Amino acid sequence: MTRPPGRVLAAVTAALVALPATLLVACGGPGAEGPAATPARPAASSPTGQAGRAGQAARPLPRSVPVELRIPAIGVDTPVMRLGLAPDGTVQVPPVTAHDQAGWYGHSPTPGQVGPSVLLGHVTVGRYGDGVFRHLSRLRRGDRIEARLGNGTTAVFTVGSVRTVAKAHFPAREVYGDVGRPELRLITCGGPRTGSGYADNVIVFAALTAGAPPG
């Protein structure tokens, strides 16, 4: 089975979109230190924020959890941890540590399954400096994202759009809502630095364009 039953998926989606937007994102933790995010060139974005026609869609892949994420255009090569829900029912974020890494939200599809697979990462990690998604806003339409899965397969995604949105207007349904093909969402913080973090979120929308079997 490559996706949750309809009622289960609908329940998970409904729960996600009901959560406060500011608790659905990774921002470097309370009182995160470090320099502000690097200003980025304006990113190409589809009107709806969906992945867009970034390339020929590939067939869905079997369920297999992600273990590594590579984004050559911005120098990301990181292990991937599994994230769940915090005790208050909000989505967890990766811990603020010196060896920062991305996290996959375990109630979303695995990369390559039908639906939006969601990965989160920090832009800064307190006194440790830059986060793994420091330069996420620099991605452009057509850039390549590779998710290596536990079964040895590499799911290859192509960026369709990149959006910077105010946290107060986080598009939860576009990020977490169901879609009819394998897609990927990468989320971090961005925009102006405030006293407690960042004012905006950077969201990358990408679609599966290849699935390389174990080599």
Automatic annotation (TrEMBL):
Keyword Protease belongs to the record: no
Classification via Gene3D superfamilies: Sortase
Keywords from the named record: Hydrolase, Signal
Organism domain of life: Bacteria
Entry-linked InterPro entries: Sortase, Sortase_dom-sf, Sortase_F
Entries under CDD domains matching the protein: Sortase_F
Entry-linked PROSITE patterns: PROKAR_LIPOPROTEIN (PS51257)
Start and end residues of each stretch annotated as Disordered: 32-61
Signal peptide residue numbers: 1-26
Start-end of Low complexity biased regions: 32-59
Protein name: Class F sortase
Species of origin: Streptomyces anandii
Organism taxonomic ancestry: Bacteria, Bacillati, Actinomycetota, Actinomycetes, Kitasatosporales
